[in-house]
Design brief:
By secondary structure, chain A is an alpha+beta fold. Chain A has helices at residues 11-24, 39-50, and strands spanning 2-8, 26-29, 32-36, 59-65, 72-77.
Chain lengths: 86, 86
């Protein structure tokens, strides 16, 4: 399936979460990732993140789409590079 | 159409951008909004945001879906309230 993952994670835990998300997905904005994953990989991703986040102060949202990519995407502003998303 | 809007906007300009996005969409995570908009409203939203952001340092991504909502959404962690997203 194709997913968009967005997170709001405290700066203390951010680098760990970032590393995990990057193993499975493309990093497309500071706190936004997207990509194709199997159900199995998605389970692993969620499991790894669950071990890192503070459930009272952090939030992860995962939008799942069956086979579709978004029908359109528009990006306004800076273009992402490995420098400006860290 | 149904959209997900995510932004990475400097704290200086954040409150203005937040106010604009909230006029058109539901605020579902610190920097994430979603909702149904007409093409006309989406144009207005983009126009208003374009007047606020710094194109070199800020980024807005808009995912557009024709008639679909996401096929599934999972939220892990805190639940959003008007207090914790400001």
């Amino acid at each position: 399936m194709w997913i968009i993952l967005t997170y709001d994670i405290s700066v203390k835990r951010n680098s760990k979460a970032l590393k995990i998300c990057r193993k499975y997905l493309s990093h497309v904005q500071k706190s936004v990732f997207e990509g194709e994953v199997t159900a199995n990989k998605l389970d692993r991703l969620k499991h790894e993140l669950a071990n890192v986040i503070d459930y009272e102060n952090d939030q992860i949202a995962i939008y799942e789409f069956d086979t579709l990519r978004y029908s359109a995407k528009e990006v306004i502003g800076y273009q992402i590079t490995t420098d400006n998303v860290l």
